[in-house]
Design brief:
The complex is a heterodimer of chains A (153) and B (746). Chain A is built from seven helices and five strands; from the N terminus they run E-E-H-E-E-H-E-H-H-H-H-H. Chain A has 153 residues and is of the alpha+beta class. In chain B, 32% of the residues lie in helices and 22% in strands. Classes of the chains: A alpha+beta (153), B alpha+beta (746). At the A-B interface, helix 1, helix 3, helix 4, helix 5 and helix 6 of A face helix 7, helix 9 and helix 19 of B.
Chain lengths: 153, 746
Amino acid sequence: MKLLVNGDEREVDVEDDMPLLWVLRDELGLKGTKYGCGIAQCGACTVHMDGVAVRSCQVAAATAEGTDVVTIEGLGMPEALHAVQDAWIEHQVAQCGYCQSGQIMQAAALLEMHPEPSDDVIDIVMSGNLCRCGTYPRIRAAVKTAATKLQET
Amino acid sequence: MGRLKTIGRRSFLIGSATILGGVAFGTFMAARPHENPLTAGLGDGEAAFNPYVKLTSSKITLIVPHADIGQGVQSAQAALIAEELDIEVEQATLSFGEPSAAYYNTAFADEGVPFMSFDDGSVAETMRDVVGAVVKLIGIQATGGSTSMPDQYEKLRMAGAVARETIKAAASQRTGVPVDQLKTANGAVELPDGTTIAYTDLAADAARIAPVAHVALRDPSTWTKVGKPMMRTDIPAKSTGAQAFGIDIELDGMVHASVRVNPRKGAEMIGFDATVAKSMRGVKAIVPIKNGVGVVADNTWRAIQAVNAIDVDWGPAPYPAEMDGHWAEVAASFIDERLDDEWRADGDVDAILSTSEVIDIENRAPYVAHQPLEPLNATVLVTAGGVEVWTGHQMPRFVQQQVARVARVEAEQVTFHNQFSGGSFGHRLEFEHIKQATEVAMTMPGTPVKMTYSREEDFLQDFPRQIAMSRAKGAVANGQIIALSLDIAAPSVVASQGGRMGQTMPGPDAQIVAGAWNMPYDIPNLRVRGYRVPELGPISSWRSVGASHAGFFAENTLDELIRRAGADPMEERLRLVNHPVHRAVLETVAEMANWGVDLGPNRGRGLALVESFGVPTAEVVDISITNNGIKIDKVYVVADVGKIIDPINFENQVQGGVVWALGHAINSEITYADGMAEQTNYHAAEGMRIFQTPEIIVRGLENAEKIRGVGEPPVPPAAAALASAIFDATGKRLREMPFNKFVDFV
């Protein structure tokens, strides 16, 4: 089947029900998207499908066909990072960093829908993303900084 | 404290002598330096000044041997070298290096010796030296116990200074300019006329001379990096998805595997039927391994699907199958035959308790899983010459040893490539997954095998934090605590872990009572005893190890006595605290939190102070009672680590430690049914999520004499401070974690 990932059309030969997560990681070599739980409890595998944040461990490959998939690798360019990535660096959010691709993808989608999110909205929308290192205070601050950056551009 | 020293020290000395086989021999051997692992691979014109700094004509390489499990230690190690080497960290290539005895961890000597952290008397210091010699002798290269900074603080600055002075000597030889007229900055030597020579241009010259032997370390007042806010080296890659972890390893011709091992940990597999799995797409092999079975496939998901399709007959657990059996064994352990040691005996507890109204207090701490977000994995390649292993691990040399045993080769034939870890919290001190990956890889020599646990398998195979219980008797009079007898029973985590590493651990286990026996209070009559529960299910170090249960027990007990005495939790602790560093920690947190202020209705405030890993840490927790349950509003934290390497990362680590501790105290435990963990994914053992996370206000102090690490010390006080706050708000005393068994949280 054909998948559109980060703007590139990619041909993969996989079962219809292989989760998009594993198509990305093991078939397409896009390792920025992480496996954490496999049951939509941790958010480490969050990617965008047609601009909406989804848990790629719960999206069958066949469902992703015909949609526009964006992963952390496609969110920003090294020379021009996405505002959320900039904010993540500025606040030095990461500790182990394993959950942060998912956190960043979720935050980017959040700011698309809520350009000026309240504290409650940040807490509610980001609650599906687990961080075992406990970087939540910095995630909150970074989301707000990213919102400001996006308003300015 | 007389008896503390006689009893604790005696059994400790016997234990140490058993390991050493004679102190004199150990000291002699320990004086010899280990071989520099960098010299073997040196090419012409390349210099390795010590095990940490390598210079070639094209690059500067810094070896930062402590494993980075999220605590930012790669960055901190590099900064310590760079500070004296006069380079910017970005100018160097950073490497975890190969496993070597040269990277032994000296700071482990401080943990486990039966002396107060601030006891710098000759006996205490001698014992630390003796234990330090043992650690060096057997070359324990390990990351853990919040020891990375104590271990590396001087060593790495010295490594940088030696390299710098040797490079300067080389520059002096080449130019004829005396060394004292040379300056260094940004990876270059500067001559008096302003011209510069890059270090890399001096590599061949430096390689020809012996490293300068005597170098003085710079005064901290001149530092430009250490102690100042830094950008962690791994932050950009971890903000763009570019950081590779062990699970992301990709090698030519690599296949993917997953295993299932008896969830009744340690028990055998009786048999299995892989008929269905064999015919599934992408499956290349079904491989029986010790106590389980693995599947090799062309994709991780296919391997996990197939291994889950195998019908397996598991043998019975070698420990109580049900939780009641575990608790019964712990409860039955407060007996003389199981006394592990009497760690503290101030005054005469029995005399006071026999003439007072006795307050009985029992506390419990459950098994808890580690569950870092990156599932355990290991990539193994077996060839005729040996074995190569890629994964993130805290004890590289033991990985070599364990893999060597499985593969029946010499440890020197095992090449280990340490990786960044997606968290650990103690989980990556274990070896079973690596051994299992090795077993699978041995069936296909020449093909690299990446073995990944499913999350469910990771939960089932997790050796959790020890189960533990305390029984205390206390007495109060005139608004003060006058006596406390605190008995703590737990299986020995050190023995459980050591047993899997083929090590016997003689002497009492300090982790049964860590954070309790050394409580920094002068209660006139105070006794702390540890009781060793025979091993139940296998257990392993969990962020803050023994202090995660014993620190909670000590402070939750103390807090209950203080409230029963009608005293103020802060005032009574300040009255009892027995050391100026600890007093300052309490006073600072009182000032930050404005202790004594009226919080208003439906609010509560609690306090706890625990010293663990030498770091006194005080936390004040503020909560609200809402219609949806208890909401944790704010946590104020003060910790004294002697010297803060990077204030930004310090704050992040402390906040993370508080989140870790509170999350698990609220909602996480591992329980056994039919010999298997009942919790197999995050929905059942969640930890904290962002909406539950309080505002966490952190301050670090630098009054203590010695530098300490901060990865673990913020953990132990948090649960006790929360229980204290819940009592303050509701009048209900929680004596068992997780607290959500008794109250609701937002």
